[in-house]
Amino acid sequence: MLLSYHARSAALSERNRRRIQREGVTMSGSIVWTEAEIQILYQIPSNLQAHERLPHRTIKAIEHQRRKQSLSRQIHWWTAAEISKLRRMYPRCSKEEICATFPHATWNSIKHAALRHSFRREKPPYKPTGHPAIDQIREKCYAIGWSLVDLDLEAKTRRYFAHGCLRSKGPNYKAIHRALNVLQGRISIEWLEER
What we know:
By secondary structure, this protein is mainly alpha-helical. The chain is 54% helix and 0% strand.
């Protein structure tokens, strides 16, 4: 390419910049940001509140200008020490304790960091159903690390345990017996009072 082509392009660009400054409108028709509007962005931290003060600006435009002015939220990179602390705390500690330990992160960002590093929270125990045999079967599954779907697959009880056990009818003793055989358990009878 000839040098004259680049000179023409540079001159055209300079003319366009002067026209944008003079008219206050960009080539695409957007209004140029004024110093007063940028000062509002420095004073107000929230994009929605800034949008209330600058109704002629869209939220996307406000976000873009914040990034341009380096006002947007800084990204936190997790350190190795924080990841090892998260590995110890994430399975057992409560959400409040974890959030207090990592004040720079929200609960969602903590969950995403744990997911990236394959950390899992401990599964809570199954809720009692009120039927002692089913509750003991569920406790045994929790103790050995089985899900109720696994129990249904092994005991060939279709989806009896995974889908609520006692929803419409009473307990299915055939399914309970199959589950006891798989879990290597035994039924015992206990009389509450003598007759």
